[in-house]
Write the structure tokens for this entry.
Amino acid sequence: MKIGHFLLLTAAIGSCGASAAEPTPNLPPTEAVARVLRANLSVQAAAGQVRVEEANRSRLEAGPYEWNLRLGAHQRRVTPSGAPDERYNEWNAQLERPLRLPGKSSADAEIGALGVAIAETGQGDALHEASRGLLRYWFVWLKENAAAAQWGEQLALLERQTRAVQRRQQLGDAARLESVQAEAALAQAEAQLAQARARRTTAGEDLRRRFPGLPLNEPERIAEPPVIVGSEDEWLATILEHSHELAVARGEVRKAQALAGRAGRDKLPDPTLGVQVSRERGGEEHVLGAYVAIPLPGGARQATASAALAEADVAASREAAVMQKIGAEAAALYHSANEARATWTASRNAADRLQRAAEMTARAYQLGEGSLSELLNARRLANEAMLTARVSQLEALELRYRLLLDAHQIWDLD
């Protein structure tokens, strides 16, 4: 990583730690995340693919050619003129093996090594994708947890309000209608709380099923999302530098180019060298010889080399497409993270104002200067604003953590 990028992102993490005791507030413990991600099935499958490519590398280094033994037996019959037939038992043996021409063995070894490197990078990509999934489903659970908490607070507030209205009605200071209105608002809050708790339970169970062993500890508070430090170009450069997906695409280009070079070498066929031994005329003659067999190349070899070159061009185009996609996604993520914080700030300010308005309406109602319907409406608006602010705060945190994750500044487990 370039020094400027390192200092930039170190400051980004430091600003997060300045607002909380831990460096990554509202995230599960890093050691638990590492354990869960390494046990993830997609990561295990990617690790298995590395072993596959290691075996494939050994196969390529050994080459496709093996010793070939040929054995034959036959009977010779000789019919001399005017004499009885002569019969001889004869046999022959051949031992042969094709040989790779110079340069082909090293090319095969290079292709095998590139396959292993791509698989290892793919394992890192699987780990990163699993990290993204964990982060996404973790914040789904946090948002549902925040919604349940907000509706719990609203329910407690309406319960107190209902008891106060019922007490005023007993004292003859409130109409029956107000009691009904308070009870209706309370029942609605109870229903909303039940739905929020059901969604929280579903989100928690989904998270447990997808990432077994992850501790689901409810946070005591939601951290304030810090300001994103650094420019779009700096974040983009860092994300591209650490992108496994881009590294895999680049590895595929190098492998395709190596395969094209290998196919070009195959336009000159490999010879087969062999020795042969034969016993003829019942042992009267013994023959020892050597031979070489050279295939005569045809159009198929040229077509194979041309196809390999075209595959290399395709891989290069795919690399460019991957770089374009990652760049677009990184830029969108950077702007979304910045805008999410601004959205949260505006939502928090709106919630604070509506909360003060609800408190003023409550005091006015206590003094007999307003109606209960106005108070209940003010409390409803304040509750909705508080819920929106909590969710916006978590969304801003999630997007910021996603930015740090893609830049490999958190959960860097490679």
Q: What stands out?
A: The chain has one domain: 3-63+105-268+312-406. DSSP finds nine helices and four strands in the chain.
